[in-house]
Amino acid sequence: MKRIIFKKQGMKNFCNHIDPVELEFGIGKLLMVTGPNGSGKTSMFQALPYTLYGVCEKGRGEEVLNDKTKKNCHTYTEFTVMEDDVVDNYRVDRYVKFTKKGNTVILNKNGTDIAKGHKEVVPLIEKIIVPYKLFTNTLLFGQKVKTFFTDLGDADQKEIFRKILKLDDYVLYQKTANIKLKEIVKLLETILRDVAINNGIIDSGKNEIKRLLLEKEKFYQLKEIQLKEMKENIVPYKIELKLKIEESDYYAKLNLTDELSKIDNDLGSSSSRLNSMDNELESKKNEIISQSRLKTSELEKGAGEAVAELSADTLTKKDIITKKYSELMNNIEQEFSNRLRKEDELNSKARLISANISSLEQRKTDYIIDPDITECPTCHQDINEECIELLQLKISEIDASISKLNIEYDNTINEANNISESAKELKQKSNDVKKEYNSELYELNDTYEKGAVLINERLTTKLTQLKDLVDNSITNVTQSNIAERIVLKGQIEELKSKRESLVNKINEYNEIKEKVNQIQLNISRLNNLIESKISEEYNESPIDSIKNKEKELIEKNIILKQSEEEYTERVEMLKFWNSGFSSSGIQSMLIDDSIPFMNEKISEYMDKLSNGRYSVSFDTMKAIKDGEFRDKISVEVFDNQTHADTRTKISGGQERIVDIGTILTLGDLQSKIQDIDFNILLFDEIFDSLDDENVGFASNLLRQVSRDKWIGIISHRHIDSVESDEILSFR
Q1: Class of the CATH-defined domain 2-143+583-729
Q2: What is the pLDDT of residues 666-717, one digit of tens each?
Q3: What is the per-residue pLDDT for 679?
């Protein structure tokens, strides 16, 4: 069993309490706290849930600050947790508008801080102890009884009851089982789909095999028809071959090749003489042209040397001009580069000064104070005149620095602008020098071009005279060669005519021989086709491939069937757990088990609280029409004297007696279900509206319960019939 022992609760500047107050808990003790309304009694107990959860009946956040101090609120709780021979000591400190700490909460375990901040600490507290709503319905009966279990609505009662029984855990289990069930069902559907696809492929393969077998039968039928056609096609070729061989034998007897050879010899001699005449004429022409080229080369060489001499003189003058202007331009460009570098340095300095001015302006805003603010927003100290004067002095110092930097900035910008203007002047000077340089180069090039043109004009005149002389010499040589060529060409034309007739006959003979070869080739090709067609067989590899694929798919289906059986078994198992974790499964069993226990406990407590007058029982509806379980708890009350059978028909005092029995019963149920035990019970104005007899019944019961717990009772009046171990009075 897990046992939680609260040791002490402290507070300062919490609600009605300004001075530090500490309440020590223990075991086997009953404390009575009395005092008038507004004296701080309730705050003593409410500090405990506020420290742990950051909320209580007095409010949340800064609502619990003392109205006078309005700051430095500090509450703390110390408790021990014992479970499985392990003892851990915890301390929770909660601060509200506290100097240096601000608003925060710190959880300490065995002397070490393990969590800080409301969002981190509260979930750990609810895990270590219980959620806030269970705390205020099993350990603390508040003065505002409308927040207690019996006065809550269906939804809130349902939430408290589910938290005690930890039914939300089973909702999570069911959700997990349902998710896993959907995953397995999806996998099972995939397997069934794959099996169906494989079966479809197998059926399709069988149909394809039938089609291929019919195709095979047609293949061999077509083969017989084609063989018959091929054999019939050979007969015409054999007939034509016989005729062409007879024609070839006739031409072979004419000796056409020998006669053609004799004509070619005569034609060759005549052509050789004609070519010789051409060569002689060409040789004479080449001699004339060669002499012409030598003279042309001599003339062009002289002109070239003159142009080269003129060009060399021009280049020398260009080098002198270029050297003069190059030195001048280098000096100007060096000075221009120095001024640009200086301008960049001044601009960088100006940007740095501007950044410093912006930084000082930002610092100045940190010292400016809103006249409507009287308290420092960071340290919460009052702002006095001395503080204001000090801040104004700092502002004045910053203003002086800014003014000095502004002057330095203006001087730097002016200097940079002056350098920029001088750089522009240098740029203009550079452009003027370039123009002068280009002008002198232009005049020099113009002089060179005019001289070169004059030399070329003289060369052209001399070459024209030389060409006219060469043309006249070639004309005379050509005319003497033409007469002899006319006679020789006539002889050649006659030989060509004879040769052409002979060649035609030879071509006819060759065509016949080519035709014989072609017919023999066609016959050979047809014989090869017939042999190939005879050896040709139908390709049965597609049929074998389909059969192998069918075998492979059948083996896959066997494996898939095994997986189908496995997943089907898992689906049934997950359906069982999905149903078991549902509201009609284990949750229903837990609720059914808890109701008899609660009715037994409430019956024991009501016998002691009312001497058997009031009967109280808990009940729950089993199921609604659609089968969903409703874990709604109803509290049934019956007055055995007046026969009042609902809570609305009994008095306020009677309701209070039912509330006492209910909180004790809920605490026992929590201890039984969660295997947890606490050492405290806190009751605020528990005896309100009770007569002396009922006060006696209630005090006797609480006295019995206090044997192993620490019970605190708040009352605005002292009650002598309550046998308390200690009385704490507030004035």
Answers
A1: alpha beta
A2: 999 989 888 999 999 999 888 877 888 888 888 888 989 888 899 999 987 7
A3: 94
Which one-letter amino acid corresponds to residue 310? L
Answer positive or negative: Cα dihedral of 252, 253, 258, 262: negative
Q: Which one is predicted more confidently, 248 or 211?
A: 211
pLDDT of residue 676: 93
Give per-residue pLDDT as tens, 350-394.
889 888 888 888 888 877 776 666 665 555 566 677 777 888 888
At position 560, the amino acid (one-letter code) is L
Q: How many residues does the structure list for the chain?
A: 731
The pLDDT tens digits of the residues spanning 84-134 come to 889 999 999 999 999 989 999 999 999 999 999 999 999 999 999 999 988
Angle, helices 652-674/692-705, rounded to nearest 10 degrees: 10
Q: What angle do CA 195, 198, 201 make, to 5 degrees?
A: 155
Tokens encoding 247: 């024609």
SS3 state at 288: helix
For the chain, residues classed under CATH 3.40.50.300 are 2-143+583-729
CB atoms under 10 Å from CB of 135, counted, come to 19
CATH architecture of 285-514: Orthogonal Bundle (1.10)
Beta-sheet pairing, 102-109 with 112-116: antiparallel
CA distance 137 to 158: 13
For 146-174, what is the mean pLDDT? 74
Q: Under a CB-based contact definition with an 8 Å cutoff, are residues 597 and 633 in contact?
A: no
Would you say 177 and 577 are in contact if contact means Cβ atoms under 8 Å apart? yes
Alpha-helical regions (H) of 536-614: 541-580, 586-610
As annotated, the residues of the chain forming the CATH 1.10.287 domain(s) are: 285-514
* 140 Rama class: left (phi>0) / alpha (psi -120 to 50) / beta: beta
What does the alpha-carbon distance between residue 636 and residue 629 come to, in Å, rounded to a whole number? 20
Distance CA 428, CA 421 (A): 11
**Minimum mean pLDDT range among 52-66, 597-611, 632-646:** 632-646
Count of beta carbons in the 10 Å neighbourhood of residue 657: 25
Rounded Cα distance, 253 and 228, in Å? 41
Residues 6 and 4: their CA atoms lie apart, in Å, by 7
| Strands (DSSP E) found in 625-675 | 633-639
Look at residue 629 in the predicted model and tell me its pLDDT.
47
Containing H/E element for 114? strand 112-116
Amino acid at 42: T
119-122 own/partner pairs: CB under 8 Å, 24+ apart:
121/92, 122/52, 122/53, 122/54
DSSP state of 375: B
- Closest of 356, 366, 361, 362 to residue 391, by C-alpha: 366
Q: How far apart are the first and last CA of the chain?
A: 41
**C-alpha pair distances (Å), 418 with each of 423, 431, 648:** 9, 21, 98
